[in-house]
Amino acid sequence: MKRPIKTALILSLVLALLLAGTACSSSDESEAPKISVQAVKTGDLLIGQYADGRVVIPSAEIQSPIAGTIAEVLVQPGQMVAAGESLARLETGDLEAAVTAAELDVKKAEESLNEARLQRTYTITSEEVKLVSLEREIYDSRYKAIEDYNQQILKIEYMKNSDLSVTSAEIALEQAEEAYDENSTSANELAIDKAQVALDEAIKTRDYNLALEQQKLVPIERAYLEAQADLANDPAIYTEYSQNYDIQKLKVDYLRQSDAAVTTAQFALEDAKARLDLAQEALSQTDIKAPVAGIVKSVAIEPGDLVAAATASSTSSLLTIAQSETVQVTANITETDIAGIEVGQSMRITVDALTLENQAGSVSEISLTPKIDSTGIVTYLVTGTFTDPDARILDGMTTFVTFIKKEKPAVLLVSNKAVYIVDSQQYVTVQKEDGTLEERAVTCGLTNGTVSEVIEGLTAGEKVVTGGIER
After folding, report:
1. From CA 341, how far away is CA 323, in angstroms rounded?
2. Quick check: 465 pLDDT over 90?
3. What fold is seen in the domain 45-56+326-467?
């Protein structure tokens, strides 16, 4: 019995050793090194500074321009809204009543202004009538006789010294005589006779008119002498009339130049219109609108809520809108690299979570405030803006940012991991279609540290080994 047992044990040990050997052989085969390859492709070579960044989507905090009670909320979180779109409305009852009252005040002020203008016109007209009456009294007094006499004397003296008709006739006669002297015809002689007759007639007419005015002077002079005698006996007669007239004229002139009541009514009307404008403006602000386009992130109000008017120091918001059309990226740049970055500089942004590469953008802001970490490293916050942001980009996503210093478009690119140098010659290992490997000399140009421009030695689509073999 013991012999078969020993034989069985020996066979078991041999079988176990064989199985173990087979397992080791399989393990060695499975652990054989694998190579990694990458295709050579055409693309844009971007040379610049690199940094990790993070997506920032600015938010607009919406507040109420006026105090009031929320009547309705028109949006909900996640909803897209356009700039100017209504977000919520306040109750309008009290504000509408205020507008109505202000409109009534404007009408009353307009009526008061019209009444003030009419009253001013009436007052001035009444006082002007009094002025005319006083003026008539002056001329109806004895002074009028003196004035009439003086005017008549002036008229007579004027008629003696100036008579256009006589002067014209004399000139006509002289011209006729000169014409006759040049040509002694019967026609010219007849012209002299006619001119002489016309002159004689003009002189007679002037003398007649002058005699007539002198006859008129007789009663006027009589009244003048009587008036002078009266004034000599009582000079205060004219003075009283004159003083009353002067006082009334001053009053009329003052009324014409002064319109205090009208001005006050105008001010009252302007004030009423201003209050109406304010009431209408307040009513228009009951419709709370989106100042920017974007996505509603949060809504903190509901119908019936009382809200305060926005102030410069207030921080609470009714709604928050993420400005989806303005997507930004921020990156911290070290003090040694910040000098190479400027506002307006082109950027390329990669969003790893969405496999978005080379998204265009530009630097929009460079913070002048340094950030110093616990190790003493100094960085500055640089903000860039996507040119045409993808709608899938979300706030907070991580990015890889290239601040472009030089760009070479549409060149053949190879990974720097595939390039090695032997005796100053650049080489790559090419994996052929049948899986075999070929060492090939290449010439590379510009590099950004990750990929290099291929000048010669490779074509687009070929696969090069980037790892897994020893060189």
Report:
1. 26
2. yes
3. Elongation Factor Tu (Ef-tu); domain 3 (2.40.30)
